[in-house]
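so my prof wants the structure for this chain in the tokens format not the other one, which i didnt know existed until like an hour ago. anyway here's the sequence
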Amino acid sequence: FNTKYLHFHNNIISMILPILINVTYLLILKSYMMSIPEALYESARLDGAGDFTVYLRIALPLCKAGLATVGLFIALNYWNDWYNAMLFLDEGRRDLYPLQYFLNNILTKAQAINAAAARSGIPASDVPTEPMKLAMTVVATGPIVLLYPFLQKYFVKGVTIGAVKG
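here's what i got, hopefully its the right format
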């Protein structure tokens, strides 16, 4: 489909929308919501609550762990995404680049400098790409490694829902 027709080209929506629409997240939330006992919904309806009230006051508060798990998956997917930026963003919109795409561009340009220098016979312009790769790995994984311990209890609970019935 044509992203320029939909006004997705060079737009923040083109970076967020493909990540949000994922069947895996829908299945995780569905199995999590199916694990909530039907008796809770029935008792709320007997008390006179409508469908919207049952959803807001019963289902949504009980789904916090599942929502936190899906939120963590979405955040990790966006953090690691570079492909959508390559497809939907031009060179002029560097303010919308995700970190991974920005780091990939730096590494690609360093390798291009090395290749151009080698073709022209200049051995002194050897840009060190291996240390750059290691530094980029630390920059890319550091925030996730620091954030994960605080969200681990929601993540483990949300992933194991539906695995064991009993």
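also thought this was worth mentioning. The chain has one domain: 13-160.
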